[in-house]
Amino acid sequence: MAISGRIHSTESCATVDGPGIRFLVFMQGCLMRCLYCHNRDSWDTDAGREVTVAELMPELLSYRPFMQASGGGITVSGGEPLLQMPFVTELFEACQAEGLHTCLDTNGFVHHHDAALDRLLDSTDLVLLDLKHIRDEQHIPLTQVSNRFALALARYLAERGQAMWIRHVVVPGWSDDEADIDALGRFIASLGPAVEKVELLPYHNLGSHKWASFGQAYPLAGLAPPSAGRMARLQSIMARHHPCVVF
């Protein structure tokens, strides 16, 4: 019986979620409750469109010339793709069989490092790991879960020598403290050469309107994005620990 997955949506020519031009699949379902989430409609694990890999591949492969010409591939994001590991694994294995680069964009909220995870990682060329905060006492109110799972996954990926980019969303007043950025940088440095790049991503509120459709007020209403000067300052702090930092 074919494995099916629930997807929120797809994007055909993404350019900011891994190298090159990418076919982006947003999986449905997430267990984090980030205050700044711009995909509020992706939380519900029972929503979305149910598809099989065989059904998704023709659409994906129609963009192969663009992906291959640019050094791109497929990125699976969310929601949280690790909640649907069997489907993502089958999709990545099918993509690698077609010569496509595979990229997993995850918040790292996985409880077990087991054979199923290893099989997925074996078919993953690059992991984009979102580390939302280095201190648990700030991570929990920001996301409603502990950071220990994401940090443990980061260490596990490093042990495997798995290529990864670390991403950190800079939310003013929440995740932009200079001492915290320095501590995050020291943690990233401890992961060694598996970390190819660190991306500091400025907070934005472009998905705030989605909260209203669920009868909820956007938790960070009125919060402005960090300035370019502030981002440059945090980049300089992170660069003490990693040579390739972008924002």
From TrEMBL:
Keywords: 4Fe-4S, Carbohydrate metabolism, Cytoplasm, Glucose metabolism, Iron, Iron-sulfur, Lyase, Metal-binding, Oxidoreductase, Pyruvate, S-adenosyl-L-methionine. GO terms for cellular component: cytoplasm. The keyword Transferase does not apply. Its EC number is 1.97.1.4. Binds 1 [4Fe-4S] cluster. The cluster is coordinated with 3 cysteines and an exchangeable S-adenosyl-L-methionine. Its main location: cytoplasm. It catalyses: glycyl-[formate C-acetyltransferase] + reduced [flavodoxin] + S-adenosyl-L-methionine = glycin-2-yl radical-[formate C-acetyltransferase] + semiquinone [flavodoxin] + 5'-deoxyadenosine + L-methionine + H(+). InterPro entries: Aldolase_TIM, Organic_radical-activating, Organic_radical_activase, PFL1_activating, Radical_activat_CS, rSAM, rSAM_sf. Residues 16-241 form the Radical SAM core domain. It is found in: Cytoplasm. Activation of pyruvate formate-lyase under anaerobic conditions by generation of an organic free radical, using S-adenosylmethionine and reduced flavodoxin as cosubstrates to produce 5'-deoxy-adenosine. This is Pyruvate formate-lyase-activating enzyme. It comes from Zobellella taiwanensis.
